[in-house]
Automatic annotation (TrEMBL), chain A:
<keyword id="KW-1133">Transmembrane helix</keyword>
<dbReference type="Pfam" id="PF19300">
    <property type="entry name" value="BPD_transp_1_N"/>
</dbReference>
<feature type="transmembrane region" description="Helical">
    <location>
        <begin position="104"/>
        <end position="126"/>
    </location>
</feature>
<feature type="transmembrane region" description="Helical">
    <location>
        <begin position="138"/>
        <end position="164"/>
    </location>
</feature>
<feature type="transmembrane region" description="Helical">
    <location>
        <begin position="9"/>
        <end position="30"/>
    </location>
</feature>
<dbReference type="InterPro" id="IPR045621">
    <property type="entry name" value="BPD_transp_1_N"/>
</dbReference>
<protein>
    <submittedName>
        <fullName>Peptide/nickel transport system permease protein</fullName>
    </submittedName>
</protein>
TrEMBL record, chain B:
<feature type="transmembrane region" description="Helical">
    <location>
        <begin position="92"/>
        <end position="116"/>
    </location>
</feature>
<dbReference type="GO" id="GO:0055085">
    <property type="term" value="P:transmembrane transport"/>
</dbReference>
<keyword id="KW-1133">Transmembrane helix</keyword>
<keyword id="KW-1003">Cell membrane</keyword>
<keyword id="KW-0653">Protein transport</keyword>
<dbReference type="InterPro" id="IPR035906">
    <property type="entry name" value="MetI-like_sf"/>
</dbReference>
<dbReference type="InterPro" id="IPR050366">
    <property type="entry name" value="BP-dependent_transpt_permease"/>
</dbReference>
From TrEMBL, chain C:
<keyword id="KW-0067">ATP-binding</keyword>
<comment type="similarity">
    <text>Belongs to the ABC transporter superfamily.</text>
</comment>
<dbReference type="GO" id="GO:0005524">
    <property type="term" value="F:ATP binding"/>
</dbReference>
<dbReference type="Pfam" id="PF00005">
    <property type="entry name" value="ABC_tran"/>
</dbReference>
<protein>
    <submittedName>
        <fullName>Peptide/nickel transport system ATP-binding protein</fullName>
    </submittedName>
</protein>
<keyword id="KW-0547">Nucleotide-binding</keyword>
<dbReference type="InterPro" id="IPR050319">
    <property type="entry name" value="ABC_transp_ATP-bind"/>
</dbReference>
Length: 317, 297, 685
């Protein structure tokens, strides 16, 4: 098991290196570079000399390979460089925002799994009854409703029904848990709905598949109680593929937050990313892309490890 | 012993008239298809159906609520929301279909090729797919948009389509590859290899037609995704840009500032996005049940 | 022979048997399935019964309703598609169909146990064997976990699984197929049931393992007094293990009675023809096999009269009315208007011209010569950075095939026979060795040379369902080689395809069909037509008849033999069924774990096998004759097939060989000529 983990971690490195390479070189073909965008937006006449000196200050005049090498070296030592727009260290920009984003993502994940697993199971067990139809319409709608629009609807709903809108300034959890949650639960719901829908659909189809397996028939032929057939024989097998989806969707949740943070006026990683992209701050963009790739690859690793624990075929394989 | 005596009503319909057969077996999916067709018709005949010019500014109608003149209200520039939703369908369906088609077709061909050759070709392609998969869809689309900018040709932003189809490619490649691996193991592919046909002949004639079902399912599913993605990008101001009508765009800018006072500004465009995506997902789900032999009883 | 039979007759006193109340009686059972294509009556008024302590065999070809009947007894039909629409199932006097579900559940696994066909998928992969074995003990007998563990150890011992304590903590994937089936038997036996229903329990297993499992089941059921219902399509198994026999055809029982009497003188023409169409190991190989032409009826729309009538050669006008299953004397029943005239009323098919080529002529230059052929596959192993392990799928394989000759290649799963076939076709790259085809080495041929050679070497695969491209019509499939490889014009290709279809016994109109609109046997004919289109000199037949029902299998075997006589094509006939190989081949190669064990002319090999493995293979396959079978001692080959990842040192067969000595572990026995033309790889001969 340990050896397996070590092997999987080792396999992450080429993937991350590939992500770094693609990101870095893709961003370097941007036609209008940050220096021009930034200086011209300040207004006034900008000389070529000024642009050149600014480029030199940011180290953009060196060969691409050198720049990439420096970036890699920085990544290993967790020095992510300096934002080209704000001039502050990237690590600091990320550091002040990451807590909020991670908290919203975790809350969304917990809400989603708590809804999705029972919903998907019931939907599968009552397949083709009205319960199943209602559940399926609920889940297909979850895939259809854009989370940012759902966010707006939530705000609108709170305002019209309770004449209350969630606080706009961020309060850390340990300062005032209530205030913190009353602010962050709404975006968590907005992005969690889609997450729940995806997981519930997976749980449903996976249970339907498993219930057709020969070993379910064996269990029934042994005289096992039907609820035990489901709980003991079907669920453990059915939840294995669901775990994959739960893990991978968590990584994509952060993608959903990129848009939804705007609606709730949250100063998180998603908003930082959108700002960085619109300002062509590619030092910041590449750092954020790497961060998301690390999250994704780590979720993959965790899923694989969980498989190892839950599936004896992987454990002893 | 003729083939027709083997079949009952549904099977018979399936062969004689696939469309009617689909409606009989999958009423929900057929409902989705109807919504899609209505939207497509509205998009094609937008200039006939829509009551106003989508870009006509009317300061007298600014933020006016739904009324006889403006059934779904007007936006901050006094533009008719119904009109902009109808024209927005044009944008959404064009970009949605083209991006999904491009992404699924290129990704699908990569997947089939990867599965057919196996070995080193497969290994390299799959490593590449793994890497591109580590970018969340919207993040990759945003980065591509940032890099390539916008390039509208005949009213269609080709770069936006590229930005949306690139994240779809590796996902389609992966799904089609796993379906193609099963086909690759089929004896009829071995028989074709033993027949001495060329690789391209085997891939195009024996492998590709047999992954058509998952391809069509993916195509519909990713049209839905692409519509959603286009809306998100436009909402962020990085997709379709003003004054062109696009659903995501209608939710951003002034709408996101004034929607608490004028909720119709966001209500109807959001509903349009949801309905379109819902219809494609409903149709896609039913199509999967319809095409997947596992779901046939 | 006559004395043996009459002794048996006396042993089974008809009066006494009829007096004993049946343990299980299925009466007039009807089961329907709702499908997308309409309602299908899979079981139509079926009745049979089994008395305490007896073994009843339920026999029939696929789709005859035998498994559906068994699942109905357990009330485990896949709902909502399948449902019982009529009849009664009396178990110890109670109608199972009328029981509330809770009582039925309490009965399952307690009084009636069931063993299924697929041992690989019938056990839950994420639960330990111990847990799955203890489950019925805890549920039905209220045992504590500790008591259940003690009993589980005892049960594993009973079914011959050593080291039970440790095995209970393991998971199904750590067991071989045969071992899993033993576990299934242990689960079945757990609560001392009165009845065990075994649905094709050994069909998925190799012949030597099949013999072990069946002997075990017979032994345990006799010792514990358990009644057994054995569902099978294998008449050899019926002959060896069954007391009573019920033959099913198209959803009905057509004949029922004591097994030996039914075998000796079947009373239904279907039974008569079924028994004649099986290729047999115990009888001299004649000319063409007798076959049952045509196909079973479509159960969505069955014929109104006797369901077998359309295929029956003893049909008379009265057969248009439905015959009832009626007593025909001797404690037997049959559903035929002419039962009393059977089996004599079914004429033997006129012996066709001896299809197979004459015995081997003196070796001229062989068409195909395989020398020292090896194939090693690298598979990912365990541990850090996955050291690759090597599977030696084929090792130092040598044989040759003459023009117009058939070489049979037999062995159990994992013996490398399929790999050898794929190497000859160059669908796999050989690791070592040469494959000389008409003097040219296939193993070293360039892509262009290979492409040229491929018109001369063709292949027929096992599975008729997946060997044809489902998106191409039959005509397109057959025309493809003609237009793309032989550059034939379209019109000419159409004509040629039509004549090929006729040649394989299909009407040319079938060219318009898609594979899913045809039966398994028809598809296999299309596969043969596709192979013939290139006018090859040589065809690899990889288990070409294994997936077919007995009656269809005979048709295809005959077709292959006729085509050979007509076209002079040579076959490499790969199969696991010794009787089928014997029927078609002039020479036979026996393989085990990647190596050739024995090579000999067909008659010599079957009459006087030299290698202990060949002897065991021939011994393990039961023949469809109860008298011969009951006279034979149990002869299961002990042990499991070793993993091909870690084959035994020296002789690969030594771990299971009854004659093995110490030296066998040290020397890899070379294949040497023991008698003229008869080679074996064993140091003990």
């Amino acid at each position: 098991m340990l050896a397996y983990a070590a092997r999987r971690i080792a396999l992450m490195i080429p993937t991350l290196l590939g992500v770094a390479l693609i990101t870095f070189f893709m961003l370097r073909v941007v036609p209008g570079d940050i220096v021009e965008v930034k200086m011209r937006s300040d207004g006034g006449y900008v000389t070529q000399e000024l642009l050149a000196s600014e480029r030199a200050r940011l180290g953009l005049d060196r060969p691409l390979v050198t720049q990439f090498g420096d970036w890699m070296q920085g990544l290993v030592t967790l020095d992510l460089g300096t934002s080209m727009w704000t001039g502050r260290p990237v690590a600091e920009e990320i550091g002040v925002r990451i807590g909020l984003t991670v908290q919203v993502a975790l809350m969304a994940a917990v809400i989603a799994v708590l809804i999705a697993v029972p919903l998907g199971t019931i939907s599968a067990l009552f397949r083709d009854t009205w319960i199943d139809y209602v559940a399926r319409i609920f889940t297909i709608a979850g895939l259809a409703v854009p989370s940012f629009w759902l966010g707006m609807l939530i705000i609108l709903g709170l305002l019209t029904v309770f004449h209350w809108s969630p606080p706009v300034t961020y309060t850390p959890f340990f300062e005032s848990p209530l205030k913190n949650i009353s602010q962050l639960i709404w975006p968590a719901l907005a992005v969690g709905y889609r997450y729940a829908a995806v997981v519930a659909r997976m749980v449903r189809s996976s249970i339907i598949e498993v219930m057709k397996e020969d070993y379910i028939r064996t269990a029934r032929a042994k005289g096992v109680f039907e609820r035990m057939v489901v709980a003991r024989h079907a669920m453990r097998n059915a939840l294995l593929p669901a775990i994959t989806v739960i893990g991978l969707e968590f990584a994509f949740l952060i993608g959903g937050l990129v848009v939804t943070e705007q609606v709730f006026n949250l100063n998180g990683i998603g908003r930082l990313f959108v700002e960085a992209v619109s300002r062509s701050d590619f030092i910041l963009v590449q750092a954020l892309v790497m961060l998301l790739a690390v999250v994704f690859v780590s979720m993959n690793l965790i899923v694989d490890m969980l498989y190892g624990v839950l599936d004896p075929r992987v454990r002893h394989g | 012993m003729s083939a027709s005596t083997r079949d009952g009503p549904v099977m018979a319909w399936r062969r004689r008239n696939p469309v009617l057969g689909f409606i009989m077996a999958q009423p929900l999916g057929a409902a989705g298809l109807v919504v899609i067709l209505v939207m497509a018709a509205a998009a094609i005949f937008a200039n006939v159906v829509a009551p106003y010019d989508p870009e006509a500014i009317d300061f007298l109608a600014m933020l006016s609520p739904p009324s006889m003149e403006h059934p779904l209200g007007a936006d901050a520039f006094g533009r008719d929301i119904l009109t902009r939703i109808i024209y927005g369908a044009r944008t959404a369906l064009t970009i949605g279909f083209l991006s999904s088609f491009l992404g699924c077709t290129i990704g699908g061909l990569l997947g089939v090729t990867s599965a057919y050759f196996g070995g080193r070709v497969d290994l390299i392609l799959q490593r590449f797919v793994d890497i591109v998969l580590s970018f969340p869809i919207i993040v990759l689309a945003l980065v591509v948009v940032a890099v390539v900018g916008h390039r509208p040709i005949m009213g269609i932003d080709l770069n936006l389509i590229a930005a949306i189809s690139i994240p779809i490619m590796p996902r389609a490649a992966r799904v089609i590859r796993s379906a193609a691996l099963a086909v690759r193991a089929m004896p009829y592919v071995d028989a074709a290899r033993a027949g001495g046909y060329t690789h391209s002949h085997i891939i195009l004639r024996h492998m590709a037609p047999n992954v058509l079902a998952p391809y069509l399912i993916l195509l519909t599913a990713y049209i839905a995704q692409a519509i959603l993605l286009e809306a998100s990008l436009s909402f962020l101001g990085l997709g379709v840009s003003e004054p062109k009508p696009a659903w995501g765009l209608m939710l951003s800018g002034d709408s996101s500032n004034f929607y608490q006072e004028a909720p119709w500004m966001i209500l109807f465009p959001g509903l349009a996005i949801s309905l379109a995506v819902f219809a494609f997902n409903l149709f896609g789900d039913s199509l999967r049940d319809w095409l997947d032999p596992k779901f046939r009883t | 022979m006559i004395t043996a039979l009459s002794a048996l007759d006396v042993g089974q006193d008809t009066e006494a048997r009829d007096a004993a109340l049946p343990l299980l009686a299925v009466e007039n059972l009807t089961v329907e399935f709702t499908t997308a294509s309409g309602t299908l009556r899979a079981v139509d008024g079926v009745s049979w019964s089994v008395r305490p302590g007896e073994t009843l065999a339920l026999v029939g070809e696929s789709g005859c309703g035998k498994s559906v009947t068994a699942l109905s007894v357990m009330r485990l039909l896949a709902r909502p598609a399948g449902r019982v629409t009529g009849g009664r199932i009396l178990f110890g006097g109670r109608d199972l169909l009328a029981l509330p579900e809770s009582e039925m559940r309490a009965l399952r696994g307690r009084d009636i146990a069931m063993i299924f066909q697929e041992p690989m998928t019938s056990l839950n992969p994420v639960l330990t064997i111990g847990m799955q074995l203890a489950e019925p003990l805890i549920i039905h007998l209220g045992m504590s976990e500790a008591q259940a563990r003690v009993r589980s150890v005892e049960l594993l011992g009973m079914v011959g699984i050593p080291d039970a304590e440790r095995r209970l903590r393991q998971y199904p994937h750590q067991f071989s197929g045969g071992m899993r089936q033993r576990v299934m038997i242990a689960i079945g036996l757990a609560c001392d049931p009165k009845l065990i229903i075994a649905d094709e329990p050994t069909t998925a297993l190799d012949v030597t393992i099949q013999a072990q499992i069946l002997e075990l089941m017979k032994d345990l059921s006799r010792r514990l007094g358990i009644t057994l219902v054995l569902i099978t399509h294998n008449l050899g198994i019926v002959a060896r293990y069954a007391d009573q026999l019920a033959v099913m055809y198209a959803g009905r029982v057509v004949e029922e009675g004591p097994a030996d009497r039914v075998f000796r003188a079947p009373r239904h023409p279907y039974t008569v023809r079924l028994m004649r169409s099986v290729p047999r190991l115990d009888q001299a190989r004649g000319g063409a096999l007798e076959t049952i032409e045509g196909l079973p009826p479509n159960l969505m729309d069955p014929p109104s009269g006797c369901r077998f009538a359309p295929r029956c050669t003893a049909r008379i006008p009265v057969c248009d009315s439905d015959p009832a299953l009626r007593p025909v004397g001797d404690a037997r029943r049959a559903a035929c208007h002419r039962a009393e005239e059977m089996p004599g009323a079914v004429p033997l098919t006129a012996a066709r011209p001896a299809a197979a080529a004459p015995a081997l002529a003196a070796e001229v230059t062989p068409l195909l010569q395989v020398r020292g052929l090896s194939k090693h596959f690298a598979v990912p192993g365990r541990g850090l950075f996955g050291k690759m392990a090597t599977v030696r799928a084929a090792e130092e394989v040598s044989f040759s095939i003459g023009r117009g000759e058939t070489l049979g290649l037999v062995g159990e799963s994992g013996c490398g026979k399929t790999t050898v076939g794929r190497l000859v076709l160059r669908l796999e790259e050989p690791t070592r060795g040469e494959i000389l085809f008409d003097g040219k080495d296939i193993a070293k041929a360039s892509a262009a040379e290979m492409r040229a050679m491929r018109t001369r070497i063709q292949v027929i695969f096992q599975d008729p369902y997946s060997s044809l491209n489902p998106r191409m019509t039959v005509g397109a499939t057959i025309r493809e080689p003609l237009t793309y490889r032989l550059n034939m014009a379209t019109a000419e290709a159409h004509d040629r395809a039509a004549s090929l279809l006729r040649q394989v016994g299909l009407p040319p109109e079938m060219a318009e069909r898609y594979p899913h609109q045809m039966s398994g046997g028809q598809r296999q004919r299309v596969g043969i037509a596709r192979a013939l289109a290139m006018e090859p000199d040589f065809i690899v037949c990889d288990e070409a008849v294994s997936a077919l029902d007995v009656s269809v299998q005979g048709q295809i075997i005959n077709l292959l033999a006729e085509l050979q006589a007509e076209l002079g094509v040579a076959y490499l006939f790969i199969a696991h069924d010794l009787a089928v190989v014997r029927h078609l081949s002039q020479r036979v190669v026996v393989m085990y774990l990647g190596r050739v064990m024995e090579v000999a002319d067909r008659d010599e090999l079957y009459a006087a096998p030299l290698h202990p493995y060949t002897q065991a293979l021939l011994d393990s396959a039961p023949v469809p004759d109860p008298v011969k079978e009951r006279a034979r001692a149990p002869r299961a080959l002990r042990g499991e097939l070793p993993s091909p990842l870690a084959p035994p040192s020296g002789c690969v067969f030594r771990t299971r060989c009854p004659k093995a000595i110490r030296e066998c572990a040290e020397i890899i026995p070379p294949l040497r000529e023991i008698r003229p033309g008869h080679l074996a790889a064993c140091i003990r001969i």
